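Regression test case RT-17, inverse folding.

Input:
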């Protein structure tokens, strides 16, 4: 293993926290004896080109400094390779770092843990989702939540997360259940009316919303959460339970555990790791052990499967 480490930095993550997090993370790696090269990039395409070159050139590790969007971009370079991925969580959501048990907004500690894993030859192989050639780490979202994202992304005011709160209120006022066609790995297509369908490789999205609370990063399977045809009143009542994961016991919620899934619904956009993928239909497969992460072994989720769709 080369002693040169590539630090992949999003300086705008978390309203500038990414830029501030890079220095203490780099200092911790240098203190451990590693040479650190920083990659920024003029834009996402340029940044990805640069980190792919670093991976192909044999960098000892790629360490993403930022949020889940930055992790998602890094995955496009390291997934399926022998290059390990480290995460210095400095974004807004940080759901992948949370799933790995890594520190949130403590870049020096995150750098120390990455250095320790590299020096000891330790790491954990975890699963990833793949849609065509695109990889994702946490959750593929579709339905009500993706419509909120669509609306929030179109809003120029206000800034920050508050605009997504406003977007949620607007979508609640206009929301109607969505007709889905869901094809699981048994080959049968189910037609359902649903509020949302979330496909979880990891358990949470949106900064700790445990939509697929039992998801296990090492079991080779997705946990799929289908929230049925809720009324607005029911959705408002159930929504706070998502942060604890207790929504999975609600009668309007059904879960599956599958290796692959196809989602189809008119007028619905898919998002993964908070990044826009495009309109449904989308087919996702879970690829076991697709990336080695510089992190402790994640605690496995509960294996029991709830009742399926009719």
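Golden output:
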């Amino acid at each position: 293993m080369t002693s040169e480490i590539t630090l992949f930095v999003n300086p705008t993550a978390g309203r500038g926290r990414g830029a501030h997090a890079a220095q203490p993370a780099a200092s911790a790696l240098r203190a451990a004896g590693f040479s650190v090269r920083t990659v920024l990039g003029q834009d996402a395409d340029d940044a990805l080109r640069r980190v792919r070159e670093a991976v192909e050139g044999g960098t000892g590790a790629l360490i993403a400094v930022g949020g889940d969007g930055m992790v998602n971009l890094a995955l496009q370079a390291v997934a399926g390779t022998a290059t390990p991925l480290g995460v210095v969580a400095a974004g807004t959501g940080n759901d992948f770092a949370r799933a790995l048990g890594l520190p949130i907004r403590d870049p020096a500690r995150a750098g120390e843990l990455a250095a320790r894993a590299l020096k000891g030859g330790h790491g954990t192989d975890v699963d990833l989702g793949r849609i065509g050639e695109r990889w994702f780490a946490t959750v593929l979202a579709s339905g009500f939540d993706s419509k909120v994202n669509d609306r929030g992304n179109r809003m120029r005011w206000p800034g920050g997360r508050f605009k997504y709160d406003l977007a949620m209120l607007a979508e609640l006022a206009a929301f109607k259940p969505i007709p889905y066609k869901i094809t699981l790995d048994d080959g049968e297509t189910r037609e359902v009316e649903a509020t949302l369908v979330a496909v979880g490789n990891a358990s949470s999205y949106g900064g700790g919303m445990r939509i697929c609370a039992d998801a296990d990063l090492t079991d080779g399977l997705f946990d799929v959460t289908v929230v049925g045809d809720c009324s607005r009143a029911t959705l408002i009542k159930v929504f706070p339970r998502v942060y604890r994961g207790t929504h999975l016991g609600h009668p309007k919620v059904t879960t599956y555990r599958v290796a692959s899934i196809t989602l189809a619904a008119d007028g619905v956009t898919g998002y993964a790791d908070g990044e826009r993928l495009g309109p449904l239909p989308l087919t996702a497969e879970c690829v076991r052990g697709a990336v080695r992460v510089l992190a402790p072994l994640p605690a496995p989720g509960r294996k029991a499967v709830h009742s399926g769709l009719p």
